[in-house]
Amino acid sequence: MAIDSTIKSPSSSSSPTLNSTQLVRDVIRIEGKYYDTKGLASTHPGGELIVRLSNQTDGTALFNSSHRRRFPHDKYKHLLIKEENVDPVSRMAPNTQNYDLYFEICEKIKPIISPTQGFAPWWYFIKVFVLVAFVIGVDASTFIWARPLWVTAIQSLFMAWIGLNVQHDANHGAVSRNWKINRALGLTQDLCGGTSVAWSYNHNVVHHVHCNDVERDHDLDIPLLRLMKSVPWTMSYKLQQFYFLGLEAVFGLVHVVQTQVWMWRGPDEKMRLVGKDWDLSRAISMIIPLRFIGFLITQPTIHDALLHTALQYCLGGLYLAFFFLISHNFCGAKKEGIDSTSGCFVTNQTETSSNVGGALLAFMNGGLNFQIEHHLFPRVHHSYYHKIAPTVRKMCQERGIQYMHFPTIKDNFVSTFNHLEQLGAKPSE
Ligand SMILES: [Zn+2]
Question: Residues in domain Fatty acid desaturase (predicted)?
Fold first, then answer.
């Protein structure tokens, strides 16, 4: 499956002005134009990481949705690379999505997010402190206290809330205008067993840009679940609406293991520009064996140590996976037919996501229950989502764009259950 909009165009462009050894491989395509990745990264006020992670992809959607304005081509014309000088392996079809309605909505929400220009309000940092201090405090206590399982269970939930409330905003660049604050808080992803580098690529560069695009969104590729019709049907999927919760319970642990293996294997061709950040994630990942050693020291048996380790990642993982799954997999969620490289950006993002609940759930889950607003405005801090939702909803409904908001988690869950049941049923010949 393709991982971004790099549906390769035939390398039949005009004869290159550079010889084949001089062709430029590290490029990002924005509104049809190719730019030098390292050049853009070095001048990016939001930090180099996200630009380097976007290497060899079309960055139009990511730029527009992160900055809520069009790319300033004039300002960066010195970094332009002629198409004939781009290495054929890095050439891709241009993103032709229409952003007219998107920028119209951006104008409408401007006054609402103006108090902090869309970044985090002061009180948010109290929430960050409480969540991070609790997880680190419990971790530290592991070496001196044979803590009961319920403490590990609560810590696991706090790790999930860090994932939703801290690293998520931070790795989207939504906490502060200062990229160093975002980067520092983004590393809490590594603290919880993931890696900020892998997460930022898979989430920001792939999932957000290509939401529910069956050709490109990796998040539809979950083993043992049939989340799209292109997955060949087998008998086992008939019960997926029942077993998906069990699968999600092991999601956290599997994710931690997979991420670590991926990270220790080292960066591939596309990711080789993020070496320093990769090394930092590797260093922080030492916290995973350290936690286990702590359990071995204080827990009575190795069995108890393993139980704590599994619970530490499984419970939080279940919480995260549950809320993720119900927000893009429900009756009416658009999948087949979505082409994230063309059509209307607002329609593509809105009709593939759903909202649930209100401001209280948004406070708990980092605004990710307002998935529509989050996908449209990933770099607006989550504390604004419930405030901008009525405006987004009105503008979408006026244009006949599906806007799905479930009143309760139960309503959303029932819709997800039915959706999985439909996809798990044997397709008619
Ligand atoms: Zn996100």
Answer: 150-406
